[in-house]
Specification:
single chain, alpha+beta, 5-stranded antiparallel beta sheet, 5 strands, globular
Length: 130
């Protein structure tokens, strides 16, 4: 079994929802705007691929009904996500790395630029390396 197949068995939808629960979207918008209903999208962590020394995930931004994802400034989100305590990128990267027995102290993580996959779906790549 190759690295990607092994990681795919670890990073199941259930495990990722446990580490980054769907309700975190509402918590994020409540913190940002004081009202969760002001959020234009739901944030979901997804596994993309794995190599021996790197893991690739993405934050999917799914447009909420009646909202406009394209009207929001999702291109500035990587900088916001990197600092926001509810996203807790350092803790999340450490927890993801720990699932593959990587030492959190040896990890580096980066967020890529926002990618528009469709008007209703944007992605923010997350890469974790050891």
């Amino acid at each position: 079994m190759n690295t990607h197949e092994q990681a795919a068995r670890v990073f199941t939808r259930e495990k990722l929802d446990e580490l980054f629960p769907p309700e975190r979207s509402d918590d994020f918008f409540d913190a940002m705007y004081g009202d969760a209903t002001e959020g234009a999208y739901d944030i979901r962590l997804v596994f993309q691929s794995a190599e021996p020394k790197s893991l690739h995930f993405a934050f999917e931004l799914h447009q909420r009904p009646g909202k406009c994802l394209a009207c929001n400034l999702t291109y500035g989100l990587p900088q916001v996500f990197a600092r926001h305590p509810l996203i807790n990128l350092k803790g999340l990267a450490g927890a993801l790395g720990a699932l593959t027995n990587w030492n959190a102290a040896e990890l580096n993580f980066t967020l890529g630029r926002t990618e528009e996959r469709s008007p209703k779906l944007h992605l923010i790549p997350l890469r974790i390396q050891r």
